[in-house]
Each structure stands twice: as C-alpha cells, then as structure tokens.
Amino acid sequence: MDTSPIREEKTSYTVLLYRKSRGLRLAEMGLFLAGLLMMVPFFEKVRSTPFIVALLLWAGVLMTGVPALYRLLLRPAYTLYPDRLVIRFSGRREEVALSRVKPSHVLPHVYEIDGKRRPLLVSDDFLEDLNVRLEMKRRGLSSDGKP
Prior knowledge:
The chain has 147 residues and is α+β, with helices and mostly antiparallel strands.
C-alpha cells in the first residue's frame, strides 16, 4: 500500500453550510420544530410579525450554528490515497478501498460505499481528485497513467 496521501481535507464550515449529511439535516429540522413549539405559547397570534421575525431568527441561528457544532464535535476529516479513502469522524477511523466506492449520481457529493449512499462532506477539488482516482481504477491505470 502506498502511504503518501493524494489529498487530505478537514471538512470546512462553508462546505457544511451547503453539503449536509442526513443526520445533520435531521438535527436542524428537529431543533427548528422544537424551537417553533417552544415559541408558540409566548405569542398571542401565530401570524403576527414578531412571531415570524423570531422564527426567522431562530432558523438563521440554526442554519449557521448547527454546522459549526457538527464540525466542532464530530471533526470530520477525509484522506484520499491512491488505493483507498480514509474517513474520520469523532475519533473513529474507517478505511474504504476505492474498489468499494462508486458515484451515486444523486448529488455530486453522495457516493455508494458497499451499496449504501454516503455523503462525503468535502470540497469540489477533493471530489474531483476522488473521481479521477475512481476513473483510473475503473480503467486499470496506475498513478503514472500506465496499465
């Protein structure tokens, strides 16, 4: 196994603002609904301007705060090697052979790993390098472009 990584990346905050895993989306929705239900008793009318403003502020806090907490607590990081992908979440490390990774064609950052769809919370540059490696594997080429 080659030990030199092609690309290493820790998930950035900006990536988490627009690429989200299912768990992150569910956390945002659950917290939004909990906040909504907690706000209702404090306002006389649900259609009042103060209620709508409070709800929009709550949504803004969640959309910016939950990704920051996710990044702080889980510390997602990805490392691409010529033959494998290493995924680290909250201290756990998972090595996946590139032969087990396939593009899902649902979204650009979603891949099938062992038949399960998994979002890779990485930049477009990382995804481009991963797609190049997958295409090289599919065609049977080595790192130097020779069969």
